[in-house]
Fold this sequence. Notes:
Largest sheet: 2 strands, antiparallel
Number of strands: 2
Shape: globular
Strand order of the largest sheet: 1-2
Structural class: mainly alpha
Radius of gyration: 15 Å
Helix content: 55-70%
Order of helices and strands: HHHEEHHHHH
Strand content: 5-15%
Amino acid sequence: MSYNIVLTTAEDIVAVVDAVIAKGSEAAKDFIAEFTGIATDDQVLKALQMACELQLIVFDSSRGWSPSFLARKLVSASSDEQKAVFMRLILEQYAPYNTFKTRYGFTKSIELACRQTKTLHMMTSNERDVKNTLISIA
């Protein structure tokens, strides 16, 4: 599988997933932007890309958006602690995160672990984006 990490935050990822769940399969980018209050179209698109990357939502051209079971649990969690638990479950299923965690445990360097994760998964992503996004969502 090909991976591509883009620069975004955990808050923006959760917000776009919430918008997709609230509106349903026909949630358009403009609706998502307005619903979430995310400032730019670029930020909305990156949050949607990472939500897809984490398999929280899937887009099918004939059926529109479809959220995963864990996405629904994440958005419906009643406390920050519960949201953190669901986010951890989501991350543990994401191969680049597991690689990053393993490489960081070995190297004790966030920068080196990010570079190695990018290289091992043959990502075209910017190394800084990989680092900042993984730190944000972890």
